Amino acid sequence: MRLGYILAMLSMEFRHLSEHQYPFFLMLEADPSLENINSYIESSYVIGCFSQNKLCGVVTLTPSRPKVLEVSNIAVEKDFRGKGLGKMLLKEAIEYAKKNNFHLLEIGTGNSSLTQLSLYQKVGFRITGIIPNYFIEKYPDKIIENEIWCRDMVRLSMDLVKSEE
Ligand code: COA
């Protein structure tokens, strides 16, 4: 591993982002609909991840029901993927949710999003449901990922009150 890369990971900083700092170009990698992003971003708490002052990841957290917080968007810059940043952002999200007394943290992803499904379960989310045909009905273009047609939304959640350890 390059020394420069190791130093960059060690100096990773997480900061609350205000409206003028929202990285829409990055959020669009997780959700290709700007209209959809605009529907939740105003009511969201947004955390950015910085390496040497360069934004390299984002997670948006949206209250969806009483005591329930939704990870509405998570994205890491291409050059930084697969190095643990997604996991670090989710840990920040869990910490924020606990500190602010949310009881449940939720996230949704596509049936074809294998890396995401793996990552979310590794940090402790459990699969709680499926919304059939969600992506067909919501997005005009057919989405193919990992050679799988992305049709259904897989819903996952984490109980922040009851410890399962
Ligand atoms: N199959 C199974 N597991 C895989 C995998 C695969 N093909 N590829 C990676 N993983 C695992 C890794 O093993 C890793 O776990 P580990 O650290 O225990 O080894 C984990 O998934 C990836 O973790 P991490 O490196 O922290 O994730 P990341 O920094 O790459 O960020 C995303 C993950 C999803 C945020 C990032 O890939 C991204 O921005 N994707 C585009 C936007 C997106 O899809 N957002 C989510 C929409 S639901």
Care to describe what's here?
With 165 residues, this protein is of the alpha+beta class. The chain is 32% helix and 34% strand. It has helices at residues 3-10, 24-30, 34-41, 85-99, 114-122, 134-138, and strands spanning 13-16, 45-51, 54-65, 68-76, 104-110, 126-131, 144-145, 148-149, 153-159. It has a seven-stranded mixed sheet with strand order 1-2-3-4-5-9-6, sandwiched between helices. A two-stranded antiparallel sheet has the order 7-8. The longest helix is centred in the middle third of the chain and has 15 residues, at 85-99. It starts with a helix and ends in a 6-residue tail after the last strand. It binds coenzyme A (COA). Coenzyme A is lined by residues 29-30, 74-76, 81-87, 109, 113-116, 118-119, 122.
Quick summary:
The chain has helices at 3-10, 24-30, 34-41, 85-99, 114-122, 134-138; strands spanning 13-16, 45-51, 54-65, 68-76, 104-110, 126-131, 144-145, 148-149, 153-159.
| Ends distance | 33 Å
> For the largest beta sheet, what order do the strands appear in spatially?
1-2-3-4-5-9-6
Secondary-structure element order, as H and E? HEHHEEEHEHEHEEE
Number of strands: 9
| Percentage of residues in strands | 25-35%
The chain-level mean pLDDT equals 94
Q: Mind telling me the C-alpha Rg?
A: 16 Å
Structural class: alpha+beta
Largest sheet: 7 strands, mixed
Helix content: 25-40%
Uncertain runs are: none
